[in-house]
Design a protein that fits this description.
By secondary structure, the chain is of the alpha+beta class. It has helices spanning about 5-15, 30-40, 105-115, 120-135, 155-160, 175-180, 180-190, and strands at about 55, 70-80, 85-95, 100-105, 120, 145-155, 170-175. It binds zinc ion. Zinc ion binds next to loops.
Length: about 190
Amino acid sequence: MISEEKARQDIRELLEFIGEDPNREGLKETPDRMLRMFKEMFRGYNEQEKPVITTFPNGQDGIIYDNMVVDTGTFYSVCEHHCRTFFGEYWFAYIPNPKGRILGLSKIGRTVDYCAARLQVQERLVFDVVHMLTEALGTEHPPLGMALMMKGRHMCKESRGVKKGGTMTSTYLTGAFRKSAQVRNEFLAYVKE
Ligand SMILES: [Zn+2]
């Protein structure tokens, strides 16, 4: 673990490397601002920031739910190859186990945010989120399946290099979503182009 002072100095040197004067007025506080920003953007390395994923016993209100639950939202992450932002939308779905537990809806977005707050590749991000949510539901009566699709715009591709727009899609499927084309197609019907 390097000290904040060392990190601050390294950022100053990086500013010099790109041709800047780190002592000029507008840049004086920039290393400190960047360090504070990094703490927020990369809190996904900090176990203490890990969201507590609330779950409820299926059927506690008299209804046993065993249909597909779908949640959508946005995500922001940073690519590990160029340290550039990638961001976009996600579609998450799962089928609760009738004997198992169901997820608190807001926890899906919080899990996406936590796993995205690291240097990532989009392929691993979908896996990390599904893994963490599956773990939260327990192994005794695991969910019947989970699916996560992300469509992301990658600034390392759009604003530099080949400079091409467009989205990248990554998907991770488990259980019924992997085994049954019918279940998979029901999920894909929720995913709007
Ligand atoms: Zn990249």
